[in-house]
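Quick one: structure tokens for this chain, please?
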Amino acid sequence: MFCVSQLTIEQDERLLWQNFSFSLATGERLGISAPSGYGKTILGRVLAGWQTYRQGQITLDGLPLPKQGYCPVQLVPQHPEQTFNPYRTTGEALGDAWHPDEKQMGYLHVKPEWLMRKPAQLSSGELARIALLRALDPRTRLLIADEVTAQLDPPIQKDIWQRLIIESQQRKLSIIIFSHQMALMRQICSRIIVTPV
């Protein structure tokens, strides 16, 4: 169970989220919808432990997120290129987490030759798929997906979301989705939080 209690987030002295609370069961898929500029990206970073917050509590199975070692909550941000070292190949970055086989790469339409290239040699859509693959490390318990397929063609979007649903069902992977595509979230999520309410 992933629990967020009375979370308050500020950015540059601006209050973004105040007393925000929700819980997420193991294997549940939750959508969060908010207008542009509302702070969804910052919320995702906070939920994944990438950024501090003013007050509140975030726990997984009753415990705070680990500050060292592998974190079982993984975020794939809207701009995944920011999460890659520009001087290393994407394959080296992926190998820091785990070593998927070609079948697993195929599920997300990741071509093996992409892993021999550096981030600047790939498109944002290609990097998004590699970032998703990296986040699907078997140790991951919760995936936070921030507009991760927005730059992909509809057929590839469909394949990737179908794969993520299978991952959620087979390994009880919880997923939080940030998206402006309400129709997409209705198809994927068991519950959607719309803010401001």
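The chain is about 30% helix and 25% strand.
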